[in-house]
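STRUCTURE:
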């Protein structure tokens, strides 16, 4: 059995990592009952040495290194297919991948908005994420992320517009949950991708988003099922 190492951004209260992409990998590895070591690089140079794109998560699997949560999960799935995270039925598989992409590419940016663009929430988040880091440096990080958010587009929304859209997608998730998991009776990569983002929103550092998540009963029941499946 190869030695598995997960390089990730640090944990925050109630979550395995501040990064939902790192959480996805934690959950996928735990679901497949694979043991792994968690490593939190503490400077940008070590992250770049692992991944020239300067992003985490990165997986070490024996002598192989894989970056990007989606690629990592596909890599693990190919080597440890049971229990499946990618459904074998082509239509269900497509559905699972579309849900994963919805989590990674849409819900994620609402989480970024809540943590980084809402000033009083950023202050609390930054204290947890960068303990002891001077105020000026925290604000430099914040400016960089706000630039990404602006480029992506969500950062151009007012707080009210962003929250309205966030509530719309939580309503959509609540309405689509007519089966125990997003692709039927079994957990898939789609559940992991969406739930990692929703768990991020449902966290003490983003209390308004958390209250919105908790208003949706189907979402809460499903989140509980996902968390139990990956425990
Ligand atoms: N598509 C990548 C996204 C990873 C990603 O954006 N990670 C963020 C943390 S949530 C990161 O490492 N950001 C550091 C940076 O952009 O400098 C994945 O699924 O792993």
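SEQUENCE:
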């Amino acid at each position: 059995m190869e030695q598995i190492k997960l390089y990730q951004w640090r944990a925050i209260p109630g979550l395995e990592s501040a990064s939902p992409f790192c959480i996805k990998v934690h959950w996928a590895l735990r679901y497949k009952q694979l043991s792994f070591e968690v490593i939190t690089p503490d400077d940008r140079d070590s992250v770049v040495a692992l991944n020239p794109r300067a992003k985490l998560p990165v997986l070490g699997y024996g002598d192989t290194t894989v970056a990007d949560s989606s690629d990592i999960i596909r890599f693990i799935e190919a080597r440890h297919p049971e229990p499946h995270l990618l459904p074998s039925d082509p239509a269900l598989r497509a559905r699972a991948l579309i849900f994963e992409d919805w989590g990674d590419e849409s819900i994620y940016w609402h989480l970024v908005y809540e943590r980084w663009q809402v000033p009083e929430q950023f202050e609390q988040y930054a204290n947890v994420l960068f303990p002891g880091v001077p105020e000026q440096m925290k604000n430099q990080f914040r400016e960089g992320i706000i630039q990404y958010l602006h480029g992506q587009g969500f950062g151009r929304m007012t707080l009210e517009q962003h929250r309205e859209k966030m509530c719309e997608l939580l309503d959509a998730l609540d309405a689509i949950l007519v089966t125990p998991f997003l692709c039927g009776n079994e957990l898939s990569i789609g559940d992991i991708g969406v739930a990692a983002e929703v768990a991020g929103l449902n966290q003490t550092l983003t209390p308004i988003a958390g209250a919105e998540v908790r208003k949706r009963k189907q979402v809460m029941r499903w989140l509980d099922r996902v968390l139990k499946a990956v425990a």
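REMARK: The pocket of glutathione is lined by residues 9, 19, 21, 54-57, 68-70, 104 (CB under 6 Å).
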